[in-house]
Specification:
Layout (H helix, E strand, L loop, with lengths): L1 E4 L4 H13 L7 E6 L13 E4 L8 H14 L3 E5 L1 H10 L3 E6 L8 H13 L2 E4 L2 H7 L4 E2 L6 H4 L6 H11 L6 E6 L8 H14 L3 E6 L5 H11 L5 E5 L4 H7 L2 E4 L8 H8 L4 E4 L2 H4 L9 E3 L4 H13 L1 H18 L2 H17 L1
């Protein structure tokens, strides 16, 4: 299994969830990390051999040579690349049957990037898309395997009042704070600034609400300044990158999500599994998991007032909260369970090997 880096991402989380389950399905997983340093980065998957290629820049022939040598040494029957960059290196390295899981594709990429992506995808024995919109973008017969979440690891039943109290104390928030969380890469397409605006609207009626933003990215400094300017009582907190997102979601009362997604966002699925109500942008990716008024609430992209009204409805209506979260958990159990995802990938591997 090849990943681009250990920077938190949906694809890395999916790769880790799958690797932990492959041994019980007759496979021995290894993990190759293109960009990383074993002196600084801890192996992400306990019990799985991790190999560091130390790629220095986007096109690195030395890293490609290291991967090719690793493939010759381990002689894998299946090489599974996660993302476009990993697929390109895997296509150069060769080896066993090549599987590629692809998420969001770049919009209007440079011609050379599109050509490299097309060549790499043509080398794959099986392309896997995480949603139907992504499969349509790939313009191929990609197999659709939705992302999975560890329902047992994120289940709200494993959390208690002490968990929330601990998180509130760490953040220096009052014990009666109503915590709205968002987890995102801080880049323009994630529209986190809109969420900060919307939190001001909600506080007009519910001043006990606090917005906490977990993530990192190029917009982090400007968003931190904007949050300080827009909230007199510092009721928007920028947390930076977190390696305990499930714990944060267990402590939160609600998840907000924004962005032009084409696949179900992992943070949304984890919040639904944890029994936390979700208010998300009405985008193709979110629509796959969040059915408005049934498993959560959807608001138009940039619709601050609509997001605010949906949030206030959930805060003030306990019966609505219970109905949404119960239906959300059922959706996760039926469609987005990590064990189901592992079974689907194992079936893909066996089909290729038997062929």
């Amino acid at each position: 299994m090849i990943v681009e880096s250990l920077h938190p991402s949906g694809l890395l989380t999916q790769a880790a969830l799958l690797a932990r389950r492959l041994a019980t399905r007759g496979f021995e997983p290894h993990l190759a990390v293109l960009t990383g340093d074993p002196a600084k980065d801890a192996p992400p998957i306990e019990g799985v051999s991790t190999h560091w290629l130390r790629r220095r820049h986007r096109v690195d022939p030395i890293a490609a040579w290291k991967l090719r040598r690793l493939v010759r040494q381990t002689q894998p029957q299946v090489v599974h690349a996660w993302g476009d960059a990993a697929l390109t290196f895997a296509a150069v390295a060769g080896g066993g049957k090549l599987v590629a899981t692809l998420g969001r594709t770049p919009i209007d990429p440079p011609w050379w990037q599109a050509k490299v992506a097309g060549w790499s995808q043509g080398k794959a024995d099986r392309l896997v898309a995480t949603s139907e919109p992504i499969a349509t973008q790939l313009q191929s017969d990609a197999k659709i395997i939705p992302p999975g979440v560890d329902r047992h690891g994120t289940d709200a039943g494993s959390a208690n009042g002490q968990t929330k109290a601990e998180v509130l104390a760490e953040l220096g928030l009052p014990s009666d704070a109503y915590l709205i969380a968002t987890v995102a890469n801080l880049e323009p397409r994630k529209r986190v600034k809109e969420l900060i605006w919307a939190s001001d609207l909600v506080r007009v009626l519910h001043n006990e609400t606090w917005l906490v933003v977990a993530g990192q990215g190029p917009e982090a400094p400007s968003l931190a300044r904007f949050a300080r300017m827009s909230s007199e009582q510092d009721q928007v907190r920028m947390l930076g990158p977190r390696d305990d997102v499930p714990r944060l979601l267990n402590a939160a009362d609600m998840l907000w999500h924004a962005g032009d997604e084409t696949s179900p966002p992992l943070a949304v699925l984890e919040a639904m599994a944890a029994g936390r109500p979700v208010v998300a942008d009405d985008t193709p990716g979110c629509q796959l998991a969040v059915r408005d008024g049934e498993t959560g609430r959807l608001a138009p992209a940039g619709g601050r007032a609509e997001r605010g009204r949906a949030t206030v409805d959930i805060i003030e209506d306990a019966a609505l909260r219970e109905r949404l979260t119960a239906a959300a958990r059922e959706t996760i159990a039926q469609q987005y369970d990590a064990d189901r995802m592992a079974d689907d990938y194992a079936a893909v591997y066996r089909e290729l090997l038997s062929g």
